[in-house]
Write a structure and sequence with these properties.
Layout: H1 7-12, H2 14-17, H3 22-32, H4 41-55, H5 61-67, H6 71-85, H7 87-102, H8 110-121, H9 125-128, H10 132-149, E1 152-153, E2 156-157, H11 165-173, H12 177-182, H13 187-192
Antiparallel strand pairs: 1-2
Length: about 190
Amino acid sequence: MGGALLFNEFRAVLPLLKEPSFKELLEKEVKENLLLKINAQASRARIANELRNRAGSVDREFWFYFEGLEEKEQRLALYYIILKTYPLLLNFHFEVVLKKWRTLDYHLEKFDLQMRLDEIVSQDATVAGWTDNSRNKIISVFMTMLKDAGFLSRNQLRKPENISSSFWKFFVTAGDLWFLEACFVNKTEREAYL
């Protein structure tokens, strides 16, 4: 598997994602297993559902752009999709990760995210109903996503390196300047892309 970002899985089904009928094509892939190469059909169905959910956060043209990116940029692009798909993870990123970065506190542990989740639990009945196991899992998966996207190494936050200016300009043009901020691009650099 391609980890929490589903990197390998997205790349495997990229030809399908570029088609207008990608949802139906993913259903067919669950049955035929021509691209994903995952043995158990139940696992393929679960992965396909997640791919469908995330892919629904961007338009079809995104995948044509994605195809031409370097691997590290593809990983960041998949992280972008995650932030667009899951409000809780967007909250974690802006309320914990980005705040730590701005205060030059680059050490990130699960406890930092647990503290934020506890705040959310006090305000959100749905999240309050989650089991401790579910809460721990979402935090672990988010930490893995940060590592896979290049934001975290040995519990230390870091800015993704050697990312092309054309990558950042894509998100500015798409009206998602917030993503540059999420990737630790400072205000002066962000303004240069406007």
